[in-house]
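QUALITY CONTROL LOG
STEP: pairwise intake check
CHECKER ROLE: data steward
CRITERIA: each record must contain a sequence immediately followed by its structure tokens, with no blank fields

ENTRY 1 OF 2
RESULT FIELD BELOW
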Amino acid sequence: GSNVLRMSSGIQIKPKTAVQKSKTSPLPHSPEPAIKPQPKPSDKLNPKTIDPFGAHSRPTSAFAAIYAKGGIPCRLVHGSVKHRLQWECLPETVPFDPLLVTLAEGLRETKHPYTFVSKEGFKELLMVEGAAEKAIPLLPRLVPVLKAALAHSDDEVFGRGLDALVQLSAVVGPSLNDHLKHLLTNLSRRLMDKKFRDKITIALQKLEQYGGKATVAIIKSKIPTYCSISS
């Protein structure tokens, strides 16, 4: 009888240890799934959590930190058809220094809503009356920031940088010529990429259109194959 008891108790013990094992064995793994999803909601709000994602190519721009602190005077409004920006005050009243430079910094962001706010904000700020007088003094600071966007490995970042460059050229005209050569190297590199060839060619033609005749020589010094729109 005692043998049977031992056996039955042995049988009872074995499932217990198996249960214990099944309870304990997932524990080393369970913290991972528990921890991993947590940063996701804060990704949008806390720029520090974005840092690891961009750390491989380049550090996150100052834009995310300033946006998180409420330092950008506009926000994204989700529309049924398309998104738009809502400004806290009239864009005409916003100082270009440092906001235009900060928005240009944001062009290097790869996460929503920073991507939309920086792109749209940069464009809308340049559309205000008297934008040329406000933007020209900022060119020495804007050009290196645009250059960084044009040098970015992300295609969408490059595209936003190219659009911003054309928008800036339309506003400041020939004033951009002194800085243009710093930006053309990255355009020349991307011309080899079929998907960007047409877009870059159109952008160069617009730079010539807004920059005047002197622009042609500057473009040709970096991109000898460029054909002038006036030729």
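ENTRY 2 OF 2
RESULT FIELD BELOW
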Amino acid sequence: EGIKGNAKLRLRECDVGAKFSQLPLRKASVLLPLLLRDGTLCLLLTVRSMQLRRSPGEVCFPGGKSEETDKDEIDTALREAKEEVGLPPEKMNHLVTPVVGFIEDTFQASPNPDEVSDVFVVPLEYFIKPLNYVALPYKNSSGYLSWMHCFTYDDHEHKKSFKIWGLTAHFAVFLAIVIFRTKPTFEVDYDLDNLLTSAEDNFMNLYASINERKKSSL
């Protein structure tokens, strides 16, 4: 319980709750499921089915758009996780809320083949000390050049390599920094001495740039 207990304490310190839920954006949530494997804190990830219209074959966390029956963001993330991998509950211009939860270390996924083609786990520390990492250049919504994390993870259990990038990689990196309080081996946009404040500032700057883009297209 020591590893989990320390992780939970650090997560609570960075829990913003519903602070940004009132922003006028469409809502979606993803679940970042943590578990212990051989004493190592790991993240469970999924691969989107090739049958899906949006982002087929990409690595992601269980999640999706909110529905009217969902009480809140946590409800959305848990419902989607149950639908996609059988985990029982005990993107642009979307406000995507990451919900972190611990799952049983013995959990065996039952992927819904219509939505998920693979389920695998990655040691959380890989997202601050990767063996295979590149930063991909891209233009953000304001037209400024920025960098996107891209990890390649060799999963020996499945004898496969998985590419983890985009918002999924962004959330995984931030989660690893929150829990390990360690500077990654690559550059990040956060002030590690004021992690939560700098993350909130980054988010609000992005939100402001999206609003400006909306106004200019009217």
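INTAKE CHECK: passed for both entries
DESCRIPTIVE NOTE, ENTRY 2: The CA atoms of residues 51 and 114 lie 7 Å apart.
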